Hints:
Layout: H1 3-19, H2 26-36, E1 38-42, E2 53-54, E3 57-58, H3 66-69, H4 74-78, H5 91-101, E4 105-111, H6 128-131, H7 138-149, E5 152-158, H8 181-196, E6 205-209, H9 216-229, E7 234-235, E8 248-249, E9 264-268, H10 286-298, E10 301-307, H11 317-333, E11 352-357, E12 360-365, E13 373-376, E14 382-387, E15 398-403, E16 408-413, E17 425-431, E18 441-442, E19 449-452, E20 457-460, E21 463-464, E22 484-492, E23 496-505, E24 507-508, E25 513-514, E26 520-525, E27 528-533, E28 538-540, E29 550-560, E30 564-574, E31 584-591
Parallel strand pairs: 1-4, 1-10, 4-5, 5-6, 6-7, 8-9, 9-10, 18-22
Antiparallel strand pairs: 2-3, 11-12, 12-17, 13-16, 14-17, 15-16, 19-31, 20-21, 20-22, 22-30, 23-29, 23-31, 24-25, 26-27, 26-30, 28-29
Amino acid sequence: MKKQLFVFFIFIGLIPSLFAQKSITQDERMQWWREARFGMFIHWGLYSIPGGEWKGKKISGIGEWIMKRAQIPVNEYRALANQFNPIKFNAKDFVMVAKNAGMKYLTITAKHHDGFAMFKSNVSKYNIVDATPYGKDVIKALAEECQKQGIKICFYYSQSRDWNEPNGLDNEWDFPKERDFQKYLDEKVKPQLTELLTNYGPIGLIWFDTPMTISKEQAQSLKELVRKLQPECIISGRIGGGIEPDYASTGDNAVPATIIPGDWETPATLNDTWGFKKNDTKWKSAEDLTRLLFDIASKGGNYLLNVGPTPDGLIPDASVKILAQVGEWMKINNECIYGTMSSPFPVEFEWGNITQKPGKLYLGIFDWKKNGLEIEGLKSKVKKVYLLADQSKKSIAFEEIYDKAFDHHRLKIKLPLLAPDKVLSVVVMEIDGKPQVEESICQQANGTVYLPGVMAESMKGDKLVKLNFSSRGGGADNWMDVGTKLTWKFKVDKPGIFKVNIVTSEKGSAESPTWQGDHLVKVIVNGQELQCKIVADRKEFNNRSHYWRKIFTNGGRITFDKPGTYQLTLLPIELTEGKLGFTFREIYLTPVK
Length: 593
Ligand code: H79
């Protein structure tokens, strides 16, 4: 057949599909987002002007909450619009900062709780074009620039709180208590979402927040609106009303203790605020952020990292610098982040963590083992090991050891003496097929046995129950009853005497973490029984979940006299009353030298 004719028939064949209603599967909708793994959050609005200070007083808490925290009357706060003139704003610079950091999407506050729209709206004059001397639509500029630079533009929209509207939720200092929330949804939220999903091209996702009392029907109607206007647009975790979002959102700044199945995201701050605050210089280090980015990817999540531009329209210098450093690391190592899946191992390692792609495991190591790294329990055949930073992919020597009597696999990797990156070095392992790992928990090379709460079998009476370890510092949520107990099975190949460390976690908000102790618990293992009170013998900042410290309780000592498989049970005897309950995270059994 002649080539032209062939092309012609292909074309004819394609015609029906041009008219077919395009329907999109969930996997298709989530594809770019799963590939991205790393995004930029931008909290920008009128609150950047006071920047954490009102009438000469420092107002504590996150900056974008200043209106509520200082109980500013609506009319006074609205007047800030007259001063909003971010003449130094340049959309290209913003997008470049994100792009240079290796971020693939950008989520900006189109409307935060204060009710002010950062875009041109015909629904309410309280918007950046109609109410400020600046008079330009920054959202439009960003959307166009993102489009140009291949970054997905996404919008944060606070759907329930609106301190500027008598019918929006949560302003009780300046509006009467009675409100018609449905009217607010119908007359502001839906029309503004319609504007956002109509006037700015394809939108990657809508980031809803703090749903408060929104009903199932109300939340569902927002979801349907987004689906109708842009079927490809993703709906973030906090739509509320018990409605299924497209992915889950952890608490603000919360990094889970382990892998969470499904799609999820940690939204996080660079300092201790989202909206700009003049005096907040508590910047996290690029080291911490890089490690967190990798750790979150290892657990299957996306990292949405925030900047809070100044009132004159600049991303603070410190933020730009820190993100550029993360970007330097990303330039060399992004293969272990983009499009990766969570670790095949359910546990965190003391040296780092693991991400994977088909046929490859990426070991992200922050605690370099110059005497060699040992991985316990990997059954897959390893084909090659090399450093991701090494373009020549020079093979690194390794040894696969199988202990038949013990049915145990151990991999020894002879790491080079010097870590290629002092922040996080990445070792690539090419493996045969899907990774196979031992089901049971193995004693680690350093002799410690880590027993994370998530890997335990949890029983209440004779029923299996599920505790949630995915929020805040990774400590159990709402463990309030003495009926629930946890049991682990694990292998010990280097027996001896071990210290039992019971690790609980702080909880509460990032701004004011709290902890509750004094619970009485029992540990039963290998015919030995220990009883102890949960007290704070040691507190340690958890570098994987920043705000919430790990609290260590010395539970006493136990002995394993020979190699073998053992079982340990943890059960509360008496739990202190209070809101937090027993925030158990994990047990460490550490060898006594
Ligand atoms: O947009 C950012 C926050 O403003 C928003 N979510 C992220 C992404 C958010 N809204 N509500 N919250 C977070 C939680 C509220 C915490 C509070 Fe507080 C505790 C409000 C009052 C007490 C922190 C401390 C803020 C003010 C004081």
